[in-house]
Amino acid sequence: NSRGTASLLKDSISFTEVSAVGLFEGHDLLRRGFTSVKNELVPSHPLELTEKNFQLNQDKTNFATLRNIQGIHAPLKLQMEFRAVKQVQRLPFLHSSNMAMDILRGNDESIGFEDILNDPSQSEIMGEPHMMMEHKLGLL
What we know:
Layout: H1 2-12, H2 15-18, H3 29-32, H4 37-40, H5 46-52, H6 54-70, H7 73-87, H8 99-105, H9 113-117, H10 129-137
Family: Belongs to the POMP/UMP1 family.
Protein name: POMP protein
Organism: Sterrhoptilus dennistouni
């Protein structure tokens, strides 16, 4: 039965394994930099995931509190402002401090780990400006 064989073959091989963007695609060193084993490891400690999602959880808590105190319009207005601030960016090869986002979140008066040890001149990933702009515009 050819129909039964086709359905078995379809269930056993996923489409991503056969497609050009699946397992057979080479790693693009110009855009993504060198591969790192550290990026592919699972979290070593249960608190690591919590720390990675801290800002998202903090925003959800703030939105819920704001909604309970002022009503539904306050978190919606703040989310619209967040979305507008995220759209305005520098060129992809220039470092941005995201000062407007810090002001909206109330982080502009606090000094954190990322303020001291996040020097863009010491970044491991540095790309060619023309290549990065062409990638952002979808020309590559």
